[in-house]
Amino acid sequence: MRIQVNGDQREVYAATILDLVQELALDPRKVAVERNLEIVPRSLYAVTALAEGDRIELVQFVGGG
After folding, report:
1. Which of 24, 26, 33, 59 is the least crowded, having the fewest Cβ atoms under 10 Å away?
2. What is the pLDDT of residue 9?
3. 33: β partners
4. In Å, what is the CA distance from 44 to each residue of 7, 14, 25, 47, 65?
5. Which of 29, 23, 21 is nearest to 48 (CA)?
6. Residue 65: predicted pLDDT
7. What is the mean pLDDT of residues 44-65?
8. pLDDT higher for 64 or 30?
9. Contact assessment for residue 1 and residue 29, using Cβ atoms and an 8 Å cutoff
10. Are 56 and 25 in contact (CB under 8 A)?
11. All residues at 6 or more sequence positions from 25 whose CB lies less than 8 Å from its CB, including other chains
């Protein structure tokens, strides 16, 4: 399906937010996700379905100093 991820159109196989995070090789514990302008709680990543045309914003937390 085609969705928008961080402003870029992308063809993905993911069915849920968790699937998408894993498809993008990101650690779900270190990512904040917004779907269609609403923040998705981490506890709902596995059950939040993606749909054609969704707009997803991903922010990855990076530590260091």
Report:
1. 59
2. 98
3. 40, 58
4. 23, 15, 18, 5, 31
5. 21
6. 64
7. 92
8. 30
9. no
10. no
11. none
Q: Which two tokens stand for residue 19?
A: 């699937």
- What's at 52, amino acid-wise? E
Please check whether residue 32 is in contact with residue 39, taking contact to mean a CB–CB distance below 8 angstroms.
yes
Q: What SS3 string covers the chain?
A: CEEEECCEEEECCCCEHHHHHHHCCCCHHHEEEEECCEEECHHHCCCCECCCCCEEEEEECCCCC
Burial of residue 8 (number of CB atoms within 10 Å: 0-12, 13-18, 19+): exposed
